[in-house]
Amino acid sequence: xxxxxxxxxxxxxxxxxxxxxxxxxxxxxxxxxxxxxxxxxxxxxxxxxxxxxxxxxxxxxxxxxxxxxxxxxxxxxxxxxxxxxxxxxxxxxxxxxxxxxxxxxxxxxxxxxxxxxxxxxxxxxxxxxxxxxxxxxxxxxxxxxxxxxxxxxxxxxxxxxxxxxxxxxxxxxxxxxxxxxxxxxxxxxxxxxxxxxxxxxxxxxxxx
Length: 208
Fold this sequence. Notes:
- There is one protein chain.
- The chain is mainly alpha-helical.
- The protein has a domain at 64-205: Tetracycline Repressor, domain 2 (Orthogonal Bundle), CATH 1.10.357.
- The chain has helices spanning 3-16, 23-37, 44-51, 55-62, 65-81, 83-90, 94-108, 119-122, 132-159, 168-187, 192-203.
- Helix 2 (23-37) packs across helix 5 (65-81).
- The longest helix is centred in the last third of the chain and has 28 residues, at 132-159.
- It is elongated, with a radius of gyration of 22 Å.
- Residues 20-80 form the HTH tetR-type domain.
- Keywords: DNA-binding, Transcription, Transcription regulation.
């Protein structure tokens, strides 16, 4: 092989080399940063330090900070927030689904070794105008969760599981408000057992 071909081969080898870091491990580190401190408070320097990569590698693998955050939210919902959708889908009634959702929230929001509370609720509470689209994105996710609860409540009303004069929207908002409050209480240090008791009390407000 002549010198020219050797240089071409070297360049091809460099291009074909895998990243020197595990992308999923790095993403999990980013999730923990955003979850613990929120979108605004976390800088690129914070992320590269937590993810154990250099800034050019971060941009190459994940894009900018906003794009990384959006991927982190998707991964968080898949790995930590999916209990909400599972409860609403798997339980036969809205009452049982939302009771399970609140009960499991007490566990998921107090996971040992993880930030407390819900990342979707707390990661963008004090955004500057420059990050307004980040806040709107999380607000939309929360709105969709309320709509999902309202649909299962309305379905129960249609089947006679709930009284016909039940206000499905208000009951869904109430359930979401309890969920959000449990997240904040978890961040303030309230233990799992207390939050489970809160979930039980909250369900007593449901119509017979």
